[in-house]
Amino acid sequence: MLPIFPKDVSPTELVFRSINGSKLKLIDKSAKARNVMKFVLHKSIHLNVNITFLLLFTTAVLWKAFNIFIPFISCTLVLILQIICFVTSVNKVTLTVVEFVGIYTEGQRIFYGPSLCEFIPWDTVIDVFINEVITGQKVLYYLTIIIRDSVNGKDSIKLVPLFQNLIPERKCLEYMYEKLAGLIGPKRKKIQL
C-alpha cells in the first residue's frame, strides 16, 4: 500500500495575517497527483501581560501606601483571565481532504484541553466557498463547506465554517480555495469563448 503523503512532495510555506493582525503560517502539504490536500495553519501566540504586571505592581504599591485593595484584586483577576485564555487558545489547525474518503479538521490547543476534531464523509460534501460574515462593524471571511445533512429522515443543507479560531485573512482563504475548488464541488464544464 502506498503512503498517502509521498516523501517527494515538498511542503510550501506561506505567511499571512489573521483578522487581528497576528502572523499566520500556512503550510501546504498537498499531493495533487493523489487528490489529497493538506493545509496546516499555525499561529504563534505569545502571552503579553506586561501592562497587566505593571498595573498590578502599581496597585500593589497603592495598596501598601494608601490601603486601597479593590484595584489590586481586579488586576489579579485580569491577569488570571489572560493566562486562562492563553492556555486554552487554539494555535494550530490542520485541514486534510482526501478525495472519495472525506474531510478531516483538527485544531490543537497550546497547553490545556482536548483538540477539536471533525470528520466529514465525502458523500455528504456538496461544495466549498468563501463565506462573508458581518459582525458589528467587521467583515470576516470563512472557508465554508456545504454538506448534506440528514436529520430524522429529512435532508437539509448544513454549512461548516473552517478555521473559526484563527480567522485568517481573505488572501489565505483564497489560496486554499483555489486548490480545493477543483477537488470539492460539482464538476462544471469550462466555457470556451
Automatic annotation (TrEMBL):
**Which Pfam families does the UniProt record give?**
PIG-H
Q: Which InterPro entries match?
A: PIG-H (IPR044215), PIGH-H_dom (IPR019328)
The GO annotation for biological process reads: GPI anchor biosynthetic process
Its pathway?
A: Glycolipid biosynthesis; glycosylphosphatidylinositol-anchor biosynthesis
Q: Which residues form the Phosphatidylinositol N-acetylglucosaminyltransferase subunit H conserved domain?
A: 94-164
Q: Which GO terms describe its cellular component?
A: glycosylphosphatidylinositol-N-acetylglucosaminyltransferase (GPI-GnT) complex
Domain of life, per lineage: Eukaryota
The membrane spanning regions, by residue number, are: 45-63, 69-90
Keywords, comma-separated and alphabetical: Membrane, Transmembrane, Transmembrane helix
The record's similarity note reads: Belongs to the PIGH family.
Protein name (database record): Phosphatidylinositol N-acetylglucosaminyltransferase subunit H conserved domain-containing protein
Question: What is the species of this protein?
Answer: Tetragonisca angustula
